[in-house]
Design brief:
Elements (H helix, E strand, L loop, with lengths): L2 H22 L2 H21 L5 H25 L18 H10 L2 H8 L3 H12 L4 H8 L3 H16 L9 H17 L2 H6 L1 E10 L11 E2 L1 H14 L7 E5 L2 E7 L5 E10 L2 E8 L6 H8 L12
Parallel strand pairs: 1-6
Antiparallel strand pairs: 1-2, 3-4, 4-5, 5-6
Helix pairs in contact: 1-2, 1-3, 2-3, 6-8, 7-8
């Protein structure tokens, strides 16, 4: 990597990584796709001038992600238990406006809705609705006609809109609910836990067959409340761990004394109650969180009294 090529590429890295992560739902895979796009771009530069770096890189990353998605879909068909995207810790140094935009881009609700789309629908929707890429350019990237990519994007948009809307909750209210949730769990207060949950709350726990987790999505105030109370009684010191913001949602990271991350938990609110709980326990999906902590990411103070 020449210094000139590196300096020319770096301004595009963050946006490419965000696009690849939304396409794939896996941070490590997204990083690999971005690195591969750099190598292909660098090779193209050696052969002829590239007049629009952003367009070239965006097209390359999209095509690489489509290929990876096609193989990933086969793997997810035999995945043990519910699948969640790889959790990403928010950057505490980001300004509030930027942080809010990024949070919307990578919310669990959006990424799970995108999972229901075909790779081409996913690409067309994200390129047009998230990145404002013209349909004519998308047609070239996907090697389809312009009317065809319009239909792909429309189908993607319909699926995403039909997913559970993510309510805009003031941060102060979100913090209040999170702290009340911690207090109810630590007290083993079933009534207090249930009072913080919506009637149709969902708990999605991703262990991938490699860590203990609920094998099915749990739904309903009573069922989820009792499950949480039981888990809190069994693992009180490590259930929550330290406060963090995960994919734009307030939540927690459980960290062992040796620095190993064993779980992330994120709370999606609907007004003043918790509408969804996303728990990632698959160790393969927690390496990125460990790296973020190693880099000094601020995940707040302990909730366990330690």
């Amino acid at each position: 990597m020449s210094a000139d090529a590196a300096s020319r590429f770096e301004p595009h890295r963050t946006s490419l990584l965000r696009h690849a992560y939304r396409m794939l739902g896996e941070r490590a895979e997204a990083e690999d796709a971005v690195q591969e796009s750099y190598l292909r771009w660098d090779d193209a530069l050696r052969r002829a001038p590239v007049h629009d770096d952003r367009a070239f890189l965006r097209a390359t990353v999209t095509r690489l992600c489509i290929n990876r998605l096609r193989s990933a879909r086969a793997r997810r068909e035999v995945y043990v238990g519910p699948w969640l995207p790889e959790p990403v810790l928010d950057d505490p140094a980001a300004d509030p406006a930027t942080a809010a935009t990024i949070a919307d881009d990578v919310s669990f609700a959006l990424l799970l809705a995108l999972e229901r789309l075909s790779p081409l629908e996913r690409a067309a929707f994200l390129l047009h609705d998230a990145l404002d890429v013209p349909f004519a350019e998308i047609a070239t990237i996907l090697e389809r006609s312009e009317p065809a990519v319009r239909q792909l994007a429309a189908r993607g948009r319909e699926h995403v809109r039909s997913s559970r809307p993510r309510a805009i909750v003031p941060r102060e209210e979100a913090v209040r609910v999170r702290d009340a949730f911690v207090a109810a769990l630590r007290a083993g207060d079933l009534g207090g836990i249930q009072a913080l949950l919506t009637q149709d709350v969902r708990l999605i726990s991703d262990g991938g067959g490699k860590a203990s987790a609920a094998r099915n999505v749990l739904t309903g105030q009573d069922r989820v409340g009792r499950f949480l109370q039981g888990v809190a009684r069994k693992f009180p010191p490590t259930l929550l761990g330290r406060r963090a913001t995960i994919n734009g949602l307030l939540g927690f990271v459980a960290v062992e004394h040796d620095g190993t991350v064993t779980q992330t938990l994120a709370l999606e609110l609907d007004g003043t109650r918790i509408a969804a709980i996303y728990t990632t326990r698959n160790p393969d999906k927690l390496h990125g969180v460990e790296r973020a902590l190693d880099r000094g990411a601020d995940v707040g103070t302990s909730t366990t009294g330690r």
